[in-house]
Amino acid sequence: MTEDKKIFTTPKVRRFARELGANVSLIKGTERKGRITEEDVKKFISNQLKEPKNIEEDSQPLDKIKNEYNHSDFGEVEIKEVPRVKRIAAPHLVNSWKNIPHVTHHDEADITEMEEFRSSLTDSFTGERKKITPLAFVIKALVSSLIKFPTFNSSIEDIDKGKMTIKKYYHIGIAVDTPHGLMVPKLRNANNKNISLISKELKEISEKCRNLKIDKKEFFGGSMTVTSLGGIGGSFFTPIINYPEVAILGIGRSSKKNVYYEDKYQTRIMLPLSLSYDHRIIDGAEAARFCNELKENLGKDF
Known about the structure:
One of its GO terms (biological process) is pyruvate decarboxylation to acetyl-CoA. This protein has 302 residues and is α+β, with helices and mostly antiparallel strands. The chain contains 9 helices and 11 strands. The chain folds into 2 domains: 2-69, Irregular (Dihydrolipoamide Transferase); 85-297, Chloramphenicol Acetyltransferase, CATH 3.30.559.
């Protein structure tokens, strides 16, 4: 606070510096008593742009932009506590978004046959229809795709040393919506499980998260994460990669569309896919091939 009082400038210049992301405490004023002018701010910004920055300096937290007015200046407000899970997740999300160059590839998968098969499943003892979540089929197809494209099942914490870690396990992260906030536990060894077991474990894991009975270790050691909005709505979006993974698959709500299939227009069930990936290790062509493989896997091997 004492340093701020020694800065001589006008509110207009302070606002000008703030809009440009400049810290006025670092600017040397040229007017009487070191008063800072707009020209001083422009000169400071110009010099900053000319100076080479190393990665470590650039990764330092930026000064928060302060609001000129309080929210309460415009009407009644209520201050509430942010849920603990969201407070814990916030720095991880910021770290991922700031340090991973995200690219999102959007596509649609034809799941008509998959849905027909899912609807036909019945219990061999009771004859009643089995309720298997579509997410179980997505996970099964995703694992097959990861086996063919191992780069998507990697981590690159040591990329500056020219190293990448290829995982030989298939632990799929599942984004679970809970009253406490979003949690991402892992479904372990998904490659060794059939559709029914995957569906059963998905329910168990989700319940543990909602009841806060999940072990902390279950949030770590993933291959790739799946986040689904299909039960709520929406089509395409940009999911944030769950560091230190290098990709995340977003699933939207499926819908019936009139598409050209087998030499004629037909009504098919299409599933929106949003694949965010780390562009440092995965390029666009590889992401497109991965999605093509995923789409093919969603149409077979049930």
